[in-house]
Amino acid sequence: MDTLLQQIINGLSLGAIYALIALGYTMVYGVLRLINFAHGDVYMIGAFAGYYLANAMNLDANPSILGTIAVTMGSMAICAAIGVLIERLAYRPVRHHSRLTALITAIGVSLLLEYGGQVVFGAAPRFFPQMIRSEIYSWGGAQITNQNLLIIVVSLVVMFGLQFIVHRTKIGKAMRATSYNLNVAKLMGINTDRVIAFTFALGSALAAVGGVMVALAIPRIDPLMGLMTGLKAFVAAVLGGIGNIPGAMIGGMLIGLMETWLGATAYSTYRDAVAFGVLILILIIRPAGIMGTAATEKV
Amino acid sequence: MNVLTKRGRFRVVAAALSLLVAASAACERKSGGGASGTGDVLVGFYGSLTGDGASFGQSSRDGAELALAEVNAAGGVLGGRKLRMLVEDDQSKPEQASSAVTKLVTQDKVVAVIGEVASSRTLAAAPVAQRYQVPMITPASTNERVTAVGDYVFRVCFIDPFQGEVLAKFAYSDLKARRVAILKDIQQDYSVGLSDSIVSHFKALGGTVLDPVSYSSGDADFKAILTQVRAQKPDAIFATGYYTEAGIVVRQARELGMRMPILGGDGWVGEPLKNGREALANTFISNHYSGDNPAPVVQNFEQAFRARYGHAPDSIAALGYDAIKVLADSLNRAGTTDGPKLRDAIASADVAGVTGQLKMNAKRDVDKPAVIQEVTYSNGEAKFVYKTTVNPG
Fold it and tell me: What topology does CATH give the domain A2-285?
């Protein structure tokens, strides 16, 4: 019984990581109908930015909550800037080309960040400083660390925060209008360039939060860390219904639980294959995902 | 007739020039390393200087370079020729290991190759050395199959069937474990081979081994498999993979409230192991070498290494050092850099190394004792504290 409970906790902790990244995927897709494959790599840059900031502040020797918040903020600012830069230099020039052009550009940006990261940061894995002293909470034979608890809480906060921004604020209304029809939104006096830049800044800042939080719990970071995690977060976003914010959360949790459940069987090393098998199944059976609504393409 | 534009002509001239430069450079190299030259004797080194295995590659290279400097300071080899080492990085990838050795052998014409540490990468590269009849000495690949690749492949470390026996005995007799679990990295021949050896030896002692659980190199979340292991209540756990994953496995096991001893092989020897932090208490490894050994040969090596690099050597560095010492000794006994003759000389090597007596047996392996060390964590570093020595036999 405590094993089952522990596995559920493990699954939710892992799922919250995917959910955090899937939220960024889904938001950019929701506004631009662009699958931003570079999102996972912005997450990697977020982790590295946090690594350098935390080391500069010597947080490994003197862990502190305030320092951690400062590092997270700094990393968010860096990633937001990078996100805006990527949009301005790579995506905006091809915005009026076909969907496929944008998709291939996104893959190009992703590869640029991954292998550029190997040049700048080096290929060897780094170890993230322990900014918060690790604490373990026991509950009915099951354990959870404060870092994992933090990830779950942060991903929930981010989800509600995003829901609020998109549905309750003026910029959110502009985002929805841009998503509905870019040209009409422009005619209505919305500065769509600015809205899209904001979307990227927000999405990338979320990726940075993800990068720092995950590196706290699982301290191994390397320039290719965003590749597999990013792809699985993408699967989570599709599973939940891409473009749907609560869907990204649910999709992430489901993928996390499923991987953990598989890890508990003799087939633990097949978990990547299963995650992508799920993607294929979803695309065949219910392309709109769990929370998505089937939309017919405009012609 | 003006077929080429001005710019085009420039390109042709530039291309021709660069070809010339490349060709002359190639000639120069050949005269340096050839079988019967008088210049420097070229030795190839390939290792994981970057990537997951960076600690292995850098340590073995540092050890080898120290030995090289000592050999050259003492007059070189073959009557005054200097040993020179060409270093190739395989980025911790087996396919790169194989192409690095191909380059060293076919382009640089090295007389022998030193490397790798990880068995999977040595297994990928050794067939190249065998095909071109260039002797290869691996400092630290312990998988049994490595030297079975062919008669040009040697090693200066013990093998996993022995290491597994040492670990199994220590867990059974010293730690009094009766029920053990094994975590293995299915992507690494080393981890798989060592796990098999532990299973058979521990069962032979009368202990129970739970079904081995697997992970892949690069994984960072082991909680699912560890929770499953926890449910079966083992007395001890063997984590037979490499240091990067080992540090995280230990830490996550402790986070799940698992306080039993955790044991590993020489694959734990790498700086990133320290990432296990305080969780490293109550973990043990089998190793090739202990810096606490008071023997003068060991203490001289420790001192020289510290003087050159500013930190203490690990066992992988000691093995890299020994590999070069065996090679230099064999070159002198062979009296030539000719591949087959050098091979024969290495096959009859019997050199006093810092990791023990290096006497090649018929399988091109050496029979050496292993040490058991306890891992401790202090001041941000993982340290290995000597517990006991186990002799082969």
Answer: ABC transporter involved in vitamin B12 uptake, BtuC (1.10.3470)
CATH architecture of B37-158+293-360: 3-Layer(aba) Sandwich (3.40)
ipTM, two decimals, is 0.85
Three-state SS letters, B199-211: HHHHHHCCCEECC
Same fold for the pair B37-158+293-360 and B161-287+372-390:
yes
Structure-token pair, residue B370: 């292993």
Judge contact between B223 and B194, C-beta under 8 A.
no
| B353: enclosing H helix or E strand | strand B350-353
B215 vs A127: CB contact, 8 Å cut-off?
no
Instruction: Check CB contact under 8 Å for B257 and A136.
Output: yes
Query: Which chain A positions have a beta carbon within 8 Å of B186's beta carbon?
Result: 269
Most A-contacting residue of B226, B227, B248 (CB-CB within 10 A), to test interface? B227
Residue in chain A closest to B272 (alpha carbons) equals A127
Q: Calculate the dihedral angle through the C-alpha atoms of B60, B66, B67, B72, rounding to the nearest 10 degrees.
A: 140
Q: What is the CA radius of gyration of chain B?
A: 23
Identify the band that residue B17 occupies on the pLDDT scale cut at 50, 70 and 90: low
CB contact under 8 Å between B211 and A3, yes or no, is no
Chain A: residue whose CA lies nearest to B90:
A123
Q: Give the up-direction half-sphere exposure of residue A299: CA atoms within 13 A in the CB hemisphere.
A: 1
Q: pLDDT of A191-240, one tens digit each?
A: 999 999 999 999 999 999 999 998 988 888 989 899 989 999 999 999 99
Structure tokens that stand for A161 in this block: 């925060």
